[in-house]
Structure prediction request, 509 residues.
Amino acid sequence: MRPTLSVLSDEQIKSILDEAKRLMAEVGMEIRGKSMKQRMLDSGLKTDKSGKRILFPVDVVDKAIADAPSSFTLFNRDGNPYTEIGGNNVHYVPGSSGLKILDHRTQKTRLANSTDFIEYARLCDGLEHIAYLATAFSTNKDIESQVSDAWRLYMTLTTSKKPVVSGAFSEHGVPRMAEMMEMFRENRADLAAKPMSIFTITATGNFRYGEDSCQNMLDCAENGIPVEIVPVTLMGLIAPVTLVGALVFHCVDVLTGITMAQIVRPGTPVLFGGAPATFHMKAASSPMAAIEAQHLNVAYVQIAKSLSLPTQAYMALSDGKSLDAQAGGETFSSALLAAIAGVNSVSGPGMLDFVLTFSLPKLVFDNEVCGQSLHFIREIKVLDDLPTTDLVNDLMRDDHLITSPHTLEHWPNELYLTDRVIDRENRETWEEGGSKDLLQRATEEVEERLANYQPFETDPAIDKAMREIVIAGFESQEKLPELPPPPERRAAKAPAGRRGRAGRRRSKT
Prediction:
């Protein structure tokens, strides 16, 4: 069996869902996107007396939950199956929505540019325990904002063949991004059958969906792009400060999104997600790593699993400003909770400062945190160790088990050996190596992995067509940013400290 986590009783789950559905039917949701609102009305849904809010009857919501897939397959850029999203499969993914980068070479925080993004994508492509990429931060410093979502996707698609979590910044962003991805498929139907991306749809809160979210949802569903519904449930500000009350509000937002997606296109893959935070009553900030936010995360994931829906959560992140003890504690605790809870897509690695700042050294540290968390939730099996007669005999004979046949057979899979970013040396060896702290080790790991990135070719015609899509959206910018050339292709070589290591397996579940 694998470790699991339950924080709600079956009775509590039923009460929370019943109350959420009551609110959807009686209070409803303000759907500010005109096209989405019309689709809801055309499907037979009614409004409240004001005409501003769409009411979602319980039977409609229940049908939508039944129509939503319990799992789905993500494919890579080449159209090959990559991983299954659903059940208790756990995937760690870089957090999204960053606006700045903590430059690992200067230790200064600044606006990110396209070179930063390319370095991030090259680094992330080779991380063993980060399952797939996200368009992690904006590069508005050197690209116009109205096309920056498509530009990030272009840089991702030409740097890694892994799937990607992405999303549009504006009401009109999805179509151009869907057109890009369709270039790697036969047609739109093939893109829907072999999705390579999950798009984030943000519920606005206050029982409303904004224009951008509505149109993005509509466009994603029509293009067959899986979506994750991500309410920013702020406990104590726009949601109740108590856990059960916040869960009710959270479920209203997510179930409304799921229902709209299924009305537009039954069978659209939707992840029951979220990015909850608490409202800090003294600092007036919104800590996403707060323990109450993590409690809300694992609780709504348990509710989603009761409905047989795939899940997403913002965890494995920190509100700290640097790769320090706070960042390590907040990241590891929430990464482990996410693994035990069975979150299918965990957004957060690499993120600092309320998901505003991205750090490459933190990303390689988080890769190790995620690897250890995945190791912890492996199924526990009897492995030639019951009965223990042979092991006892080996110990009595040799006074140790290091050379026991059982040890030699099983230690490569049973013992997790960390990269050098985690200090496992004795003090003397550590001092001889320069007494490097975590940030120094992580920074060196970043540079070595970047040097070992393995480039690949993209069809020049597709590359040109994707660039033209971005350029077509320019308002005043004249040309695309210059991107750094890839390192010279070399024989694949693992970074130092990993070569020859046993017990290291890339895990996607």
Observations:
- The radius of gyration is 24 Å.
- The longest strand covers residues 81-86.
- Residues 221 and 265 are 6 Å apart (CA to CA).
